[in-house]
Amino acid sequence: MRPRIKYHIIYRHSGEYPVSVMCAFFAVSRSGYYAFVQRLGRPEKDAALAELIAQQRERSFHTYGYRRMWLWLKTQNIFRNPKTVLRIMKKYDLLSEIRRRRKWLQMGQQVYKYRNLLNREFHADRPNRKWVTDISYIHTGQGILYLSMIRDLYDNSIVAYKTGTHQTVHLVLDTIRLAMQQEKKRVAVELQLHSDQGFQYTSQAYFNLTQAYGITPSVSRKGNPYDNAMAENFFSILKTECIYRHKPATFSEANEMIDRYIYFYNHERIQLKTGETPLARRLST
After folding, report:
1. CA within 20 to 30 Å of 219's CA: 7, 107, 115, 265, which one?
2. Which residues lie closer than 8 Å to 149 by C-beta, 6 or more apart?
3. Residue 151, exposed/middle/buried by CB under 10 A (0-12, 13-18, 19+)?
């Protein structure tokens, strides 16, 4: 944390705690703090915008980089050069917190074989035309929690998701049932559901359920994880912006984090390509 930020915190709480104690706690000098206080008489050029960015940073779980923050500022009728936003975020230590994740590939025994109908065409011209699905591991202090989700390629929204402590076919089937219940009659006549070659997606039960709903399965080619890149992409976002940074201790805590983050992702997280949130695009269709 930069000294200027520490000085702001000390100044804000100077009526509650001794300044000397807070300076010692934050490892800054009292002379530097009092010099900062004297400068408060002169308006800090970027302070007002930095405070606004800081508030949005908290709402976005510290995940907004300068480009996404720049897009959000435009929605508030605040127009600044992206480089200016980056400079202010660096100056006030407001940059996003990110971490890369390692990719993994789950292959399983096949009962049914499907063609790769999606063929990496990750664009849909209307909602509920192309869905992608997958399961990922969420590591907790209690063990592994499995997250199954369905993502719509029209707006990249998460249509449905389920978690479980076992990686079973039922976890996948329950995710599909929830998606169909929530979308009801809005599902397109020709709906593709793309997955990898995991055993859940090539099982008899999966075949039966997709047939019952009139869903056309599509499956990645063997050894081609990029065929389902949009599903992997969401898990990367979730883990980078949420799970890796907070490391849930229990299944319950992990579920709460996932619920909170997916709501934020669907309703509030601005997408760089569209400049709006997933559900904002969906509702405007």
Report:
1. 265
2. 133, 134, 158, 160, 161, 162, 175, 231, 234
3. buried
Helices (H), the chain: 3-12, 19-26, 30-39, 47-59, 66-75, 82-91, 169-183, 204-213, 229-238, 244-246, 251-267, 278-283
Amino acid at 21: V
**CB contact at 8 A, 85 and 46:** no
Q: Side chain identity at 200, as an amino acid letter?
A: Q
The three-state secondary structure class of 277 is coil
Q: CA–CA separation, 63 vs 69, rounded Å?
A: 10
Q: Rounded distance, CA 160 to CA 142, Å?
A: 24
Strand-pairing partners, residue 119, are: none
Contact yes or no for 94/2 (Cβ under 8 A)? no
- Yes or no: say if 57 and 64 are a contact pair by the CB < 8 Å rule: yes
Q: Quick: pLDDT tens for 219-256.
A: 999 878 889 999 999 999 999 999 988 889 999 999 99
How far is residue 110 from each of residues 132, 134, 196, measured CA to CA in Å? Answer: 19, 16, 11
Q: Tokens in use for 193?
A: 């559901």
Apex CA 67: angle with CA 3 and CA 256, to 5°?
Answer: 80
Q: What is the pLDDT of residue 43?
A: 56
